[in-house]
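In the current project phase, we have settled on a layout for protein records. One protein thus recorded is set out beneath this paragraph:
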Amino acid sequence: SEYQWTNFFRIVPPVGTSLQALAGKSFSYENGTECYKEHDVGRVTKITGPQLTILWERTGNSSVWNCSSEYQWTNFFRIVPPVGTSLQALAGKSLSLNGTEYYKEHDVGKVTSFIGPKMIILWERTGNSTEWDCSGYGADWKWIDVYWIVP
């Protein structure tokens, strides 16, 4: 309907939110200096009116995104848990491959890095790491459907 909240409001990610550039998205300054490219991870460092300032980890450069423009930030970036975030496997979720157990329900792991669109999680109990392809966002599964953030 015309009265859906998305017709009146936009989601603005708060300061501290980690964003990952989607496949095919990149930005360079007019002088040719690269700011970010696909799969780079950045953090929202400042909000000034409708503008987000994002500091990109790989380049150390910042970009400004105008949330009031016709280009929605969600068409360029996805929210990802920052490196160092603890995730807990949800009830009924587990992973064992070829006789190696990686995690089972309620296990806690820590996001250690990103390799392209993949989030690397080191599981405390087993000491094993898994990769989660964050580009699956929008498909029938998402990382938030398997893990939750431990405060």
